[in-house]
Write a structure and sequence with these properties.
alpha/beta; 7-stranded parallel barrel; two-stranded antiparallel ribbon; 8 helices; 40% helix
């Protein structure tokens, strides 16, 4: 069994290079919520050094709140902003001898697109316009995945190691209790259930079916590197290979 393990990079953390040695895919901030041309270039160079797939991590224009503010924007505006961010990373990756393989929206853009068909469709169109061979990464079973498939894109369904789930398969909003799993042991157990069994236990107790093709490893916390090593070791113990290909 194999699983893609992804992490968000270029967001101002000081352990990006170490994380890149544990994951198979990197989602690089494109300037709208974090990062700039310099951080994108450095992240691309490290990803190439460690043979990690390079992905764009577009966001709403929200540096003040790290891309976590809810926006109501016209779909064409979201299309243009997403295309701009993907293009910026594509240009930098190409200049370094690499290429962008996937796109994973960030923060509130990701969460809203998971539930709002019009927003999901705008993002899918932008990804296809940038490169129809790009893979769109979205919440497993969400509107993002449906829109990407309708657009003829390849998809990668994502699950979260350290986030609580609701009975409908959506994530518990960060503003509500149970949104974040604080226990490393619980997070690892949840991840193994999702990868091996295709199921996750909701905070209300029900078992929910999920398709785990990639696992998100949040890289923006002080504990991220320690947890990444623990999760990587757990995969090894269960004969699960970390691979994005």
């Amino acid at each position: 069994m194999k699983i893609d393990l992804n992490a968000d990079l270029g967001e101002g953390c000081d352990h990006d290079r170490e994380l890149l040695q544990l994951v198979s895919s990197a989602n690089i901030a494109c300037g709208f919520h974090a990062g700039d041309a310099d951080t994108m270039r450095q992240s691309v160079r490290w990803a190439l050094e460690y043979n990690v797939q390079i992905g764009a991590h577009p966001s709403f224009p929200d540096r003040e709140n790290f891309g976590r503010t809810r926006f109501t924007l016209p779909p064409e505006t979201v299309y243009a902003q997403t295309l701009e961010q993907i293009g910026a990373l594509q240009a930098i990756a190409q200049s370094e001898g690499g290429s962008v393989t996937h796109v994973k929206p960030h923060g509130m853009l990701y969460n809203q697109a998971a539930q709002e068909p019009a927003l999901a469709e705008a993002i899918a169109r932008a990804v296809k316009a940038a490169d129809p061979q790009l893979v769109l990464v979205g919440l497993a079973g969400s509107e993002s995945i449906k829109a990407a498939r309708k657009a003829g894109l390849m998809t990668r369904e994502e699950v979260f190691a350290d986030r609580g789930y609701q009975a409908d398969g959506s994530l518990v909003p960060r503003s509500q209790p149970g949104a974040l799993i604080e226990s490393d042991e619980q997070a690892i157990s949840q991840t193994l259930d999702m990868v091996q069994l295709g199921k996750v236990r909701a905070i209300t107790g029900e078992w929910v079916d999920v398709k785990a093709e990639t696992v998100c490893l949040h890289g923006d916390g002080a504990h991220a590197l320690v947890f990444a090593r623990q999760l990587h070791a757990a995969f090894a113990r269960h004969a699960i290979t970390v691979s994005g290909r």
